[in-house]
Amino acid sequence: MSDIPIVVLTALDVEYEAVRRLLERPQPHTHPQGTRFEVGLLAGGRARIALGLVGKGNQPAAVLAERAVNEFSPAALLFVGVAGALHSDIAIGDVVVATHIYAFHGGTSEDDGFKSRPRVWEVSHSADQMARHIAREGAWADGLDGKEPKVHFGPIAAGEVVLNSTTSPHAHWIRQTYNDARAIEMEGAGVAQAAHLNRSLPVVVIRGISDHADGTKESADRAQWQERAVARAAAFTAALAEALAAEEPPRRGPADTKETPEMSQTISNVAKDNARVGVQAGHVQGGIRMSAGREDPVDPAAAIAELAVRLRRARTAGQLDEDTYRAAEAELTTARETLRTTGPQDVGAVTLALKKVRGLVGDVAALSAEVASVIALIQGLS
User: Fold this and answer.
1) Assigned fold of 6-246
2) In DSSP terms, which residues pair with 107 in a beta bridge?
3) How far is Cα 332 from Cα 30, in angstroms, rounded to an integer?
4) Which of 299, 300, 295, 332 is nearest to 315 (CA)?
5) Which of 376, 375, 301 is nearest to 338 (CA)?
6) Torsions phi, psi of 137, nearest 5?
7) Which of 60, 99, 250, 372 has the greatest number of CB atoms lying within 10 Å of its CB?
8) Buried b (16+ CB within 10 A) or exposed e, 161-170
């Protein structure tokens, strides 16, 4: 199992609880801006899940999905919840997996009517293939009560209204303009947009069908179809998360890095004056750049920003506890602010802050080595 987490987001409390019940010993994880996640393993340790609640609507879903991606650097982003079916062949309790998402509220209003201008995001090919394989095997539903639900693949329409009618003007417009959409909901477009803006991070939207968007929503809710539908969607989500995690290479833990420290992608040794750069190595990971000191120097602020990213990843991977992470993050903030506000740059103060960081993360050999390289870069400014 990879220790790179899979982010799973939900909109409703009933959806959140359905996923949370599948996790072993979930631990709270609070974002600096107050958003509270829970991180735990699927039963049997099959995948690490970072679970979050975004609330209703595409806008909060987009904001908190972006926040989760930056906080956890996940292997994939999954959104699980309930939806209304738009076709009669989809039964209540079935599962719909989006092949692409329509953000259907975009358009222009003209004298002869409303012209739709939707945005569309497709699911990545690899994630779609994985989901279809899981649906074909059917093992994902082994723990469910009753008959195995059918899994449907197709477009999902995401807007800002709850559709609960087949005769309203809005219902006619949805079914005429998006007649291939299999289900309708309120968050998928925001999640897909956030994933698209993060280097096309794989995103999958999984919906349990709790009603037919036909005026019967209240009676279906009283029959507890929300709870039953989302339990099925959560089961499929768990199987998909497990499969995605199995394809991710594991990050090195502290025990590994003591003997073979993980190297950053590129190591640059820049010689000054009459010195020359040379390399003698047995095994080399990443890139090596030979330079006589005539290249533009690495931006110190960018190097510290990269350290902050790697610090978060170490915390997410369990290599740093929360207190150590926050202390190191505070020192990095001090170093960054000192670089930005002092002129000429106070190399001594920045170096001191970075040395404190190195002391805090000393048990993580790879991260400590990276801090040391940035210290050397900063000292080269003097």
Assistant:
1) Rossmann fold (3.40.50)
2) 116
3) 19
4) 332
5) 301
6) -65, -40
7) 99
8) eebbeeeeee
Q: Distance (Å, rounded) from C-alpha 305 to C-alpha 339? A: 12
- Mapped onto helix, strand or coil, the DSSP state of residue 166 is coil
The per-residue pLDDT for 316 is 82
- Helix ranges (DSSP H) in 289-364: 300-316, 322-341, 347-360
Q: What share of the chain is helix, strand, coil (3-state, %, to 5)?
A: 40, 25, 35
Q: Which two tokens stand for residue 323?
A: 């207190």
**Cis previous bond, 344, omega within 30:** yes
Q: At what angle do helices 300-316 and 58-72 cross, to 10 degrees?
A: 100
Q: What is the pLDDT of residue 368?
A: 84
Element (H, E) at 289: strand 287-291
Quote the tokens at residue 225: 């179809």
**What are the mean pLDDT values of the chain's consecutive 10-residue runs (382 residues total)?**
86 97 94 94 89 95 94 94 96 96 84 81 92 95 86 94 87 88 95 85 95 92 94 96 81 42 45 47 46 53 86 84 88 86 75 88 83 84 66
DSSP state of 258: T
pTM of the model: 0.66
- Find the distance separating the first CA and the last CA of the chain, reported in whole Å: 45
Which tokens belong to 34? 């107050």
Encoded amino acid at 176, one letter: Q
Amino acid identity for residue 160 in this structure: E
The pLDDT assigned to 249 comes to: 57
Distance CA 357, CA 363 (A): 11
Structure tokens at 143: 């723990």
pLDDT, position 36:
96
Q: Which helix (H) or strand (E) holds 17?
A: helix 13-20
- What does the pLDDT read at residue 200? 67
Report the pLDDT value the prediction gives residue 84, as an integer from 0 to 100: 96
What is the per-residue pLDDT for 248?
66
Residue 34 burial by CB count (10 A; 0-12/13-18/19+): exposed, middle or buried?
exposed
Cα separation, 354 vs 18, whole angstroms: 43
What are 275's two structure tokens?
Answer: 């010195």
